[in-house]
Structure formats: C-alpha cells, structure tokens
Design goal:
Helices cover about 35% and strands about 15% of the residues.
C-alpha cells in the first residue's frame, strides 16, 4: 500500500471533452496571465507543459505515498510524523488511545476495571502491512479476545468507532461511493462513444 506516484501528462483535447460531457467547466492555461486567472478562480484546467514545468516542476518528481484517512485518498510519506511511520505505537500514543477510548474495548465494551482478566490491545484498523499508519485516526482499543478474533484482520466497520477516523459518516461515504460509481459509468460511456466515432472515421 506504500507506493511511488508521479504525475503524467494527459491529452488536452480529451480532458476538455470529458469535462464538457460531465458538465464541468475548464480553462486552458498557457501563460502566466491565464495561470493567475486559474489560481484565483479554481476549477479544472489543462496547463501547457512549459508553464507547468516552470511553476510546478517539483510536482513531476516521484513521491512516495501512503494511505490517509478514509475519504482523503493518499498523502506523501513526508507529511507523516515519525511516530506514524513506526510499526508499534509509542507508549505515549498507546496511552492516548486508551484514554480516548476510556480504557474500554470498542467492539465488546469490556474493560479491565470491571474484569481484571481483560487485556487491552491498541489495534491498527488499517493493518500496518496494508499501509496503515500508527496515528490516532487509525488506532483503536480492542480486548485480546476481539483482537485475535478479527477475520479478516482489516474490518472496515471498526473505522466508524475511531473518533475522527472517518472523515464522513457511513451514509455520506455510501453516497460518495455511489457518486463515484456513477462518474465511472458516465466516463466509460463517453470513452465507448469516442471509440465508436474513431472506428467509424477510420478507413477500412
């Protein structure tokens, strides 16, 4: 789940066509003047390569990325703290998580104060092996029984139990997923239409 990412050029005409078909306005940036306009107005822009290299050349360099919180996509490793990049939570972070969760298993509700046989673990909701960072937004208190009983180890529903672990509520996430799926469907329809047009225009 840790990966190297780098920007890549696009076909300007295709991008503007796709934005138009999906009802999104866009501008062409081919000078400092139009770049200033875009930076103030925002939205979608196709930026000429010379302009992009002059002002945003560093964005073309490969960047090591890691998953962020659900709903936030990925982020550069450089934006993570040293503690987040360590596999095991530090003693301070472990205690912060236990206090936040009121020394109680977030799955079954048991706590050592009521049963001295209860052992609490600080669990990576998104497993470390799948890119999960050791940050408060990805750590949750589970008792030994619930922790060892996880199958699969990555249980998405636990994200709803992490304060500030999920950017949006589950209904909002479902709406976002539906909107994303609809966007993918429309994109595929547009591409299919383009391919048919190209096939019709290509001499046999």
């Amino acid at each position: 789940m840790w990966e190297m990412r780098t920007a890549s050029p696009v076909n300007a005409e295709n991008m503007r066509y796709l934005w138009k078909e999906t009802g999104q306005p866009s501008v062409v940036v081919n000078s400092e003047r139009t770049l200033t306009f875009f930076m103030r107005a925002g939205g979608n822009a196709v930026i000429a390569e010379p302009v992009f290299r002059q002002w945003f050349g560093n964005l073309l360099e490969p960047v090591e990325c890691v998953p962020s919180r659900v709903g936030e996509g990925i982020r550069a490793v450089s934006s993570a703290t040293p503690a987040e990049l360590q596999h095991a939570p530090s003693r301070n972070i472990r205690m912060e998580v236990l206090k936040r969760d009121q020394f109680r298993c977030k799955a079954c509700g048991q706590r050592p104060a009521e049963d001295p046989n209860i052992v609490l673990h600080v669990h990576h909701v998104r497993p470390w092996g799948q890119g999960g960072l050791t940050g408060m937004h990805n750590l949750l208190t589970l008792c030994h029984t619930c922790h060892t009983g996880l199958d699969p180890h990555f249980e998405w529903q636990l994200l709803t139990m992490v304060p500030d672990g999920v950017v949006a509520t589950m209904p909002e996430l479902e709406d976002n997923l539906k909107a994303f799926a609809e966007g993918v469907r429309r994109y595929r329809e547009i591409v299919a239409a383009q391919l048919k047009t190209l096939e019709a225009e290509t001499p046999a």
